[in-house]
Amino acid sequence: MVDLQYDFMPGGALAVSEGNLVVPVANRLQERFDFVVASQDWHPSDHRSFAANNPGCEIGDVVDLDGIGQVMWPVHCVQESRGARLVESLDQSRIRRVFQKGTNIAIDSYSTFFDNGHRQSTGLADYLRSNGIDEVFLAGLATDYCVKFSALDASRSGFRTTLVQDGCRGVELEPGDVGRALDEMRRAGVQLLTSREVLAG
Ligand code: VGL
Ligand code: ZN
After folding, report:
1. What is the C-alpha separation between 16 and 162, in angstroms, rounded?
2. What is the DSSP-derived secondary structure letter of residue 87?
3. Does the active-site annotation cover 46?
4. Measured in angstroms, how far is the CA atom of residue 33 from the centroid of ligand 1?
5. How many CB atoms lie within 10 A of CB 112?
6. Is 38 in the pocket of ligand 1 (CB under 6 A)?
7. Contact at 8 Å (CB) between 110 and 149?
8. Of 7, 69, 128, 129, which is the most buried if we count CB atoms within 10 A?
9. What is the rounded distance in angstroms from the CA atom of residue 12 to the CA atom of residue 73?
């Protein structure tokens, strides 16, 4: 379950349209799984992905950050803030572990597996493998950022990977970003299913 946090919900600092609608889907899906992990975007307030920390930059600009193109975001998911909390409507009773990411100010981390430069691992892949897991299903926010990069890394790390499409919503900075993200995942071997199909299977 990717980044089901207040700041990504409607009204939040980096609101994803209809982001609230994926929470009941995630809750229903959890009953089908015996191993549930969550990710949490967890930035220091001086994180360099925030436009406010890059003088002259506007939200949506792309700047070079240590050799990597970095989108400038509004201040969001600041450690310990309410916006960074997993939403209360999410059933958290089955979560084995929450993986926090984006904690290094100098590099963003959309994926729950690696930072954007693939320099550091969060330990998620090893954690899953050591628990005998070779297949993952993803839902959450946002389809075109954290969900996409998590799914691509999951697939590349050797997990059979399924994206639950109605369990995700995207930012769509540019119209069509979600469609392109889905294509990219499909091409990388990620299976796209609806929650209905997953729950029936
Ligand atoms: C996300 C942009 C910046 C996400 C996180 O959860 O998709 N997007 N930080
Ligand atoms: Zn972030």
Report:
1. 21
2. P
3. no
4. 25
5. 29
6. no
7. yes
8. 7
9. 13
Does any ligand 1 atom lie closer than 6 A to the CB of residue 9?
Answer: no
Please confirm, yes or no, whether 153 is among the known catalytic residues.
no
pLDDT tens-place values along the chain, 201 residues long: 999 999 999 999 999 999 999 999 999 999 999 999 999 999 999 999 999 999 999 999 999 998 999 999 999 999 999 999 999 999 999 999 999 999 999 999 999 999 999 999 999 999 999 999 999 999 999 999 999 999 999 999 999 999 999 999 999 999 999 999 999 999 999 999 999 999 998
Known catalytic residue at 101: yes
Distance CA 176, CA 174 (A): 6
Distance of CA 91 to the CA centre of its chain: 17
Q: Which two tokens stand for residue 143?
A: 């389809």
- How many A from CA of 146 to the centre of ligand 1? 5
